[in-house]
Amino acid sequence: MSESNDVGKLLELLRALEIPDTKPRVLRALLRRRRTLPRPIVEIVGVQGHPALVADLYSWLGESGGRRATPRVKVDLRSPDLPPTALTPDLNAFNAGPHANDQEIPGHCLPIIQHLVAGFAADDTAMGAIKFPRYRTADWLTRQRVTSDESEAPDELRRRLPKLLRSGTPASHSDTAEGVAGDTISRVVFGVLALWPVLRLWLWVSGRIPGMSKVTRWFLHQRYLAPELSGSFLGFASRLTASHRVDENEEQVAKLLVHAFLEDLRDAYRRRIWRPSSWRRTAYPVALFGGLAEGSDGARILTWINEIRNETGLFDPLVVLAFREQGPHREVGELSQISDLRPLRTLESLADAPTQQPPDPLQTWVREIDNRRTHRQADAWFLPLRALLPADTPPGVGDPRFRGMALPPAPPLAARSWFVGLCVLIPIALAAAATLVYFPPIRGIACSHWPWTDGVSVSQRDGECVGYSDNARQTFTDDPELSTMQREVFRLNAAAARAREDNPNRPLVSLVYFAGLSYVDTNVRYPHAQVEELAGLAVQQRRALFASDESEPLLRVIVANGGSDMRHARWVVDNPLRELVAEDPSVLGVVGIDRSNDQTRQAITRLGELGVPAVATTLSADGLDQASPLYFQAAPSNTVQARLVADYVQGAREPGGAPRYDEVVIYHPETEDDLYVTSLVEDLRAELTERGVVQRSWSWREQQELYRFPAPCETEGFDRRTLLFFAGRNDDFPTFAKSVSRGCLSGAGPAILGNDAVTRLITDQRATAALPANLTVRYVAKAAPVMLGGADCVRGVGKLGDQPVPFEHEQLCAELAGLIEDLRGYPELTDYRPSWAGDRTGLAFDVSGLFLQAVRSSRGVLGDLPPNRTAIAVQLRESDYRGVTGTLGFSTRRVADGSSIAVLVTTAVGSAGPQRCLLMFPRQSGQDGCPAGTKSDIEGWVEPSR
Questions:
Q1: Strands (E), 85-130
Q2: How far are the Cα atoms of 125, 318, 424 from residue 276, in angstroms, in the given order?
Q3: Rounded distance, CA 648 to CA 920, Å?
């Protein structure tokens, strides 16, 4: 480019010096092997009117046409307002002046460096202000006037350091703070806050914490004034004070100040992958000096920078452009001979460019600087250049062609504020999203728990809340009766925990009550069955709490939900329950277990594989005992139920003594995966066939198909000696009853016998509302003695017809009355008044009592060791339990076929009238097995002949 002056070349040179990399990239910078060079101290010689040129260059560096600009400071070294260098203060003159009593002297040792610090600290470059903690500390120390002698000076200085740490602004208590400081919490808070400055001062002074003590550590490890002779930062700092600096070498003091200034610049431009702000500094700071003269304060500053670079070998980013009218006593190059610098990406790459003729002074300097600095040449870092810069000859610095030339390059993508913001926000957003996913309580989901929540592990699966809970933080189902019963069980759990704390020698038995507590189809929900079972468990909990001797175990009940029809039973066992039994050795077994289907069978198998005994309260499907060697069944199997029904059919008599039935019609759904229904139908067919009883079947796939069956009362020639046996599930029974009773007159309906699933409806007053009024229903009932106890039991009186009842029966009724009274204390159950105790209450009472008896027996074998699942399983096999439902014995078979099961009858379903007995197992030969005073008078029964 042919010009009439060297302005263009000067600006080209200045851009090459101030821009470390025209295309900054993070990865390339990290992998770059070539060391970055400090910039030469450029002296422009032979320039007249330098103040105007310096001002133009200052404006050119700032008016970049964009948001970014180069950090820059201009200093007129000839200005009368620039104080001279004063490394050794005149204390005599200071003491005689108006500030004689001040702790600080007003002037600075190096006013030129102070001017540069003030300029670079001003942030108008979009790169962030440069902080100068080391220089400011050194400058503050050099202005301190210490009155103590050398031994006391460090202590006096220590007392002043908080002022430096507070940036010279003393802390003051606000009126508001003093107004609230009277209460205890405020005093504690203010006490902690008051200790922080003390702790901060100690950490800062000690130099032991790299993050908080890097300034003091730097002072103790830099090379000037021999800091190792001081022993501590305070000792070294006291040597820098105005009062004790008279014995120090002035040049060493000056170099310490300049070195601190350069180190602060190094720190600001030091690339750190974890500090994006350093990568945004894409232009080096530029110091513009005008009026440089040989031997002046400015010349001394530049000499000290040169010597510090030689002596330390450290990089610093400072770019110095000084204008002087007279040339220095060293060789001066020509600015015009510098080659085209515009294609350069970095200054260091100039060393690899072809050699120019005549020689390029900048290229020569770049190639020789390593040798020159190694030999510590007095002018190693100086690059004097002669330039043709007449003030009245165009082009000038402000020429439009140079506009934007000084614009620093954009920072790397990874260092831009929006990218850094995204890098911060995206992980936060992902973490927040993951938190919302993995911590559902944050979203307010009812079926959720915190990972640290004890006693609860639940999950939402297919719209159902499944898992387990042992406290009121999580209950299953929205039915108020069932939910309240769970809360009462959980209240008793808490009482058991307190009793255990009071008497640690009492064993704590944890049983998992596992059932289907939620319903996908609200049309088939009968939560009253689970309420009855939980009531039986709660009664045992109450009994255990009232006992005080160490031999009596306490009972904790963990409620687990397997979902509607237990369809999630396998998942619940494999996940939350598996973790529970692994972590809690007090969990000795699983009770309840709802629905005889494939999912339940798989869950039983997995419980056995986990070594957990499982005792089902009401399951009766054949073959479940083959699913696990640790499975026990408290109810008789379907084989026994089929034998009971066949005995009843053959032995039932009219009041006149004639046989009651000639034929049995079996109604059942077609459900291959329902083990209970399929095995019951097969057993009954086989039993009736063996006995020669006439039988036929009606089946359905959808509930509405029941209305397509012929109604007996509407069928001509219907034999009223036909028994309609319902072998389906309880949710189909209301439809079945309405279908077969169509067209019947009051009291003239067909004879209906329901399987044991119908008991769910019989004991639930709300469920029986769906049945035809005054319908006579015969049904199979397990735990028949409890059902026959009637309304007396819920009033606290153990009664069974005209015969005495065992002690366990009396205890069940007494505690059941107390439980009902407690349940009425809940707002949801103020009118809770069950008509009689249900069969499931008795079965759950006996099953939990069976476990408690096993724990008592195992203590005689284990001694002081806590009971374990293996010992409990052994005791379940070896010891019979005589409870309210009969004898539960598993010594020969893990199915209690000897427990009670009966055919009962209610003549007005849904009423509070007593249930009556038609036939009960076990029984003596020739007898119906019904307790005295419970026999129904609507028909008789005799021993059938075979």
A1: none
A2: 16, 20, 12
A3: 9
Mean predicted confidence (pLDDT) in 97-102: 65
pTM score, two decimals? 0.66
- Rounded to whole angstroms, what are the CA distances from 587 to 81, 459, 581, 691, 887? 88, 21, 6, 46, 25
For residues 385 and 360, give the distance between their C-alpha atoms in angstroms, rounded to a whole number: 11
**Cα gap 741→750, rounded to integer Å:** 7
- Rounded (5°) CA angle 741-744-746: 110
DSSP string, 644-658: HHHHHHHHEE-TTS-
11 alpha carbon, distance to own chain's centre? 58
What's 384's DSSP letter?
E
Give the contacts of 32 (CB within 8 A, at least 6 positions apart). Answer: none
Peptide bond into 358 cis (omega under 30): yes
Which residues, 6+ apart, have CB-to-CB distance to 633 below 8 Å?
A: 615, 616, 619, 620, 624, 625, 894, 895, 896
CB-CB contact of 252 with 259 (8 Å): no
The helix or strand, by DSSP H or E, that contains position 701, with its residue range, turns out to be none
Q: In which residue are the tokens 């070998």 written?
A: 313
Residue 507 is classified by DSSP as: -
| Contact assessment for residue 794 and residue 872, using Cβ atoms and an 8 Å cutoff | no
Instruction: Compute the distance between CA of residue 601 and CA of residue 603 in angstroms, rounded to an integer.
Output: 5
**Angle, CA 880 vertex, CA 874 and CA 882 arms, to 5°:** 145
Residue 24 corresponds to which tokens in the numbers above? 């900054």
Among 768, 700, 740, smallest CA distance to 526 is for 768
User: Which of 320, 203, 213, 210 shows the shortest CA–CA distance to 261?
Assistant: 320
Backbone torsion region of residue 91, taken as left when φ is above 0, otherwise alpha when ψ lies between -120 and 50, otherwise beta: alpha
- Residues 754 and 915: their CA atoms lie apart, in Å, by 14
Highest mean pLDDT: which range of 201-205, 367-371, 908-912? 367-371
Name which of 474-488, 761-775, 835-849 the model is least confident about. Answer: 761-775
Token pair listed for 342: 């515009």
Q: Whole-number mean pLDDT of the chain? A: 86
Q: Where are the beta strands (DSSP E) in 58-213?
A: 72-76
Secondary structure, 3-state, 878-917: HCCEEECCEEECCCCCCECCCECEEEEEECCCCCCCCCEE
